[in-house]
Amino acid sequence: MPVNPIGVASGLLDTLGGTPPQWGGISSHLLGRLTAWDVVANNEMQNSPAIVCPVTDVNLEMSLNWQSPFEQSGPESKAPTLMALLQSGQIGPIANALGALAGNIGIVESLSKDIAKVAVDLTGKTGMTRLNSRQVFSGMPPAKLSMTLHFRAISDPDSEVMQPYAQLLKWALPQKLAADSVLANAIEAAPKGVAAMMSQMFPSVAPQLVCFKYANNMYSPMVIEHISNSLDGHLGITGLPIYRSVQISLSTLTALDATDVSNILSKGSLL
């Protein structure tokens, strides 16, 4: 699918190795590629700009939520102090002390002896079972990717550093935010019908979804959740940066399942 590169830093790639010339002989497998994602076509957007640059510290995080709902169903959770006394055997001396205090009162003396016997039998025992510790799957959040993007200028800081950086910000920020309030727009559109009112209820445009490719893997669609970078240092005589490292966090649009593995590990995998 055709894409429009952005500047030397991202698109004027060596035709043989696919590496931006300012990075010398770096392997194309060490480069990350970001493009816009078309939700309707479920593919890379036609004529999308492409940000191609070296990436480091690439980390994939998947959190799977498993819980033990039966953990609190045992007797330890209902009467924790009593169960602790029984399991440790400390209830025996307490029962003996109560029996001595009661003297020859038959029912109390008999009860204290029964408790002392039970204490011996239950010492070291626990109410935990395999069922109590059974885990059940309770869902998972979307997968997250964190990495550092590197932009470096050799001859033109604007096209080699600033243009790719600007495109990254354009994808991360909302594409459009309405200036007026939602309620005011909806009231104004009321004479035009329900469809016009509903359209004015959502006057802004959400940030652009992206596709990320790295090391023969493809992650799509993704959302940009976080961007962080330093604005000082490494400046040229024009005041533009000659090098910039950008920390970025991406997240999948939805949670993943086993069928997504073949889509991610596509080229060069065993699938």
Class derived from helix and strand content: alpha+beta
Shape: extended
Termini gap: 23 Å
Low-confidence stretches: 1-17
Q: How many β-strand stretches?
A: 12
The number of helices is 9
Q: Biggest β-sheet: count, sense, barrel?
A: 6 strands, antiparallel, barrel
Instruction: Estimate the mean pLDDT confidence.
Output: 76
**Physical arrangement of strands within the biggest beta sheet:** 2-4-7-12-11-10
Structural domain count: 2
Helix content: 25-40%
Overview of the molecule:
This protein has a six-stranded antiparallel β-barrel with strand order 2-4-7-12-11-10. The chain has a two-stranded antiparallel ribbon with strand order 5-6. 19% of the residues are buried. Helix content is 30%, strand content 27%. The longest helix has 17 residues, at 106-122. It has helices spanning 7-10, 75-78, 80-88, 91-102, 106-122, 157-172, 182-189, 194-201, 261-264; strands at residues 3-5, 31-38, 43-44, 48-61, 66-67, 136-137, 144-152, 174-176, 205-207, 210-214, 217-229, 243-252. Helix 4 (91-102) runs antiparallel to helix 5 (106-122) and helix 7 packs antiparallel against helix 8. The chain is α+β, with helices and mostly antiparallel strands and 271 residues long. It is built from nine helices and twelve strands. The two termini are 23 Å apart. The chain has two domains: 3-65 and 141-264, no CATH class; 66-122.
